[in-house]
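User: My collaborator sent over this chain with a note saying "see what the structure looks like." That's all I know about it. Can you take a look?
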Amino acid sequence: MLILRLAKVKQVKILSLIAVFSLFILILASCVPGGTQPAQGWSGTIFNDGIIYVSSMDGKVMAVDPSARKQELPFPSSNGEWSFTIATTPSGGMSCGSSSMPVSMYGTPAVINDLVYMGIYNGKVLAINPSTRSQDLPFPQMKDREWAYPRTDKAIEPIVGSPAVDENSVYVSSSDGRVYALDMSLGDEKWKPSEPLSDKLWTTPVIKDSTLYVSTFDGHIYTLSTEDGRILPWTFEGEAGFVSSPVLYKDTIFVGSFDRNLYAVKIGADKPLWKFPAGNWFWAAPVISEEIIYAGCLDGKIYAIDADSGKEVWKEPFDAESPIVASPLLVDGSLVVAAESGNVYVINPKTGIGERIKNPKNDNRPSIDARVWASLCANEGVVYVRGQDNWLYALDIEKGRITWKLPLTIEE
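Assistant: Without extra context I'll predict from the sequence alone. Here is the result:
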């Protein structure tokens, strides 16, 4: 038994090292020596109260009004649009170089109570007030609930995942292996674990009631108290490290692993409810609706899986013929999937049959002429995609075409 236990520990550590190395290479590939080109984050889009919030690859957070874009008004228009450049600071650890380099952003913004929360790769967490940013006032305006954590020039380790937010706090995972809980209004540190949970935390926590669920590269799912950060009694240990952020549906956690399986783990259990094998990692977090899990995989396929049994729902998975890095999105009864290739597909979630959105210039080219790593958002049948070419695309699902696009390199 001891030999088997040691072998399992060795496997977990090897897979964890491979995972960290793979992600590290991706991030390093987005850093251009000499500061001559913008950094490449893969921060996704989020829609809130008529505005799309998106980060650019040259260190800006931007608010985009779709109605103004349809009218082809100059950006920023007077319709609540703005662009805010985040100042760079020197950072230790896995930085992209000197302070002259643009700030990279990998996590998708979170919006609550009219504030935008961002975790930055330079180790800062920001609360941004859209109304204040539209006035182009110096940042942060504390009277308008804006803040930056830490307040000093010294930052925590790089932040890759998205912030998780409840009614009182903002939670971010850091590359130092800890989760930080910050006061939503003031940005004060409320707690952090005394010891790291893992070598690095690059996933996004999920919150239910007063518990925070965190998946780690070394194969653990930890439960933390949102009140004080203490580790709660239930911890799940998998056979390999977890690559994706956890998704919580009812009383079950769904998470992708480095052993090329999607795991379903009942809260409180010491063994998985089931695990579903694929041809590569389930990097992106799945989306769940009506007891069906829709999971994109780096093998280029989308799988529909019954949440209770772990059995496939479709006759065969949908093949996008390119790795799926961004999570699928359910839009008006359709499943929308963006492949790394730039192809965007609209799929019937019942049958798994789908069609590709055509490129308006050349049908032989991908839907958009850029790779897609960032998560999508949608509103009223329009999906918003940030490509790795630093453009924001609006795709009308019913019409099957791009309705407008906006370069995110616009000078302020």
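A starting point for your reply to your collaborator: The chain has three helices and 32 strands.
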